[in-house]
Write a structure and sequence with these properties.
Keywords: Oxidoreductase. Pfam families: Ldh_2 (PF02615). Helices cover 44% and strands 17% of the residues. The chain contains 13 helices and 12 strands. It has a 7-stranded mixed beta sheet, sandwiched between helices. It has a 3-stranded antiparallel beta sheet with strand order 9-8-10. Helix 1 (8-21) crosses helix 2 (26-41) and helix 1 runs parallel beside helix 13 (325-336).
Length: 340
């Protein structure tokens, strides 16, 4: 089957229909599809249509509730809580994000706690959505135990992604989003599918020995980035995005699922901040000062994070998203039969 090029809207509609056919409510199917397509649009294959089968497999196992309706718990404080009801996280985020941004603008800082959700996606779509409201934002969540702590020899921590965004007037925001493991688990799986070895320093096998074999890495453990520094940040995320918000840590998630074959079930913490409120009464415009910093970074020839994603997005918006014949055949099959 030859390669196929679709517009962003066409691919979004196709992915949405796959989830609708699998029994997912429109309130969940649309947000999930938008996040998956964002991965393809931005050239991040490990977060694109590759994620669909994992979502469907988790649905079929009853580990995520496709009919769940997220519930927003209203209050007047700085903490906003959405119970995802066991459903996917994007629908819960869409429900709570507008209130989070407004509360941050009113109070200077606010937090959105998403509980009882299945999280499978990148964090940058959420961060960018909050930046579109004019607030800076942080997001984090545990995963399931696939990463050994620095100096350890067995999986305990999750890949535990962490993201930050700063709004830029009339420009795409400054955004970074990375796993606290050396690489996302999806990258290991893509190497396994392609039959290519991993870079050295990514993983250890079941015996705690270094390995470049993707299957041995999946059976063993990944490593944190930056040694003890990445390990400490990952532990912080376990505490803030798990224990503090009354949800599962990565070890508890793995105990709940019993396997890494399904998508992780846990919570998520997002924090939004108003630069105007924090800088009130002080000299200078925080956004103008940020632009001075960004210009100085670029002036040294350094690349701001997300620039490659934004460049890929520009191409996708102009030329569409090209899927391989194998990818398109898989989507066509899932559209007719969502069983995996």
């Amino acid at each position: 089957m030859p390669d196929t090029t679709l517009t962003i809207d066409e691919l979004t509609q196709l992915v949405t229909r796959i989830f609708l056919n699998a029994g997912v409510t429109p309130a969940q199917a649309g947000p999930v599809a938008q996040v998956i397509v964002a991965g393809e649009r931005d050239g991040c294959k490990s977060h694109g249509v590759y994620r669909i089968e994992g979502c469907l497999r988790t649905l079929a196992a009853g580990k995520v509730q496709g009919q769940a309706q997220p519930v927003l718990q209203q209050d007047e404080g700085a903490i906003i809580r959405v119970d995802a009801g066991g459903g996917f996280s994007p629908g819960a985020f869409d429900l709570g994000a507008p209130l989070l941004a407004r509360r941050a603008q009113d109070l200077g800082i606010a937090a959105l706690v998403i509980n009882n959700c299945t999280h499978f996606s990148a964090l940058w779509p959420e961060i960018e959505a909050l930046c579109d409201h004019g607030v800076a934002a942080l997001a984090m969540c545990p995963s399931y135990s696939t990463v050994a702590p620095s100096g350890g020899n067995a999986p305990l921590l999750g890949t535990n992604p962490f993201a930050f965004g700063w709004p830029r007037p009339d420009k795409l925001p400054y955004v970074f989003d990375f796993a606290t493991s050396v690489a996302a688990r999806g990258e290991i799986e893509l190497h396994r599918r392609a039959g290519t070895p991993l870079p050295e320093g990514w993983a250890i096998d079941r015996d705690g020995q270094p390995t470049t074999d993707p299957q041995e890495a999946l059976d063993g453990a990944m490593l944190p980035f930056g040694g003890h520094k990445g390990s400490a940040i990952s532990t912080m995320i376990e505490l803030l995005g798990g224990a503090m918000i009354g949800d599962l840590t990565s070890r508890e998630t793995l105990d709940y699922l019993g396997t890494t074959d399904y998508l992780p079930h846990h919570g998520e913490l997002l924090i939004a901040l108003s630069p105007e409120r924090f800088s009130a009464g002080r000299p200078g415009d925080p956004f103008a000062r940020a632009e001075t910093l960004f210009k100085a970074i670029s002036g040294q020839g350094a690349r701001l994070p997300s620039q490659r994603r934004f460049a890929a997005r520009e191409v996708s918006q102009r030329d569409g998203i090209t899927l391989s014949g194998e990818e398109m055949a898989r989507l066509t099959r899932l559209l007719d039969d969502p069983r995996v």
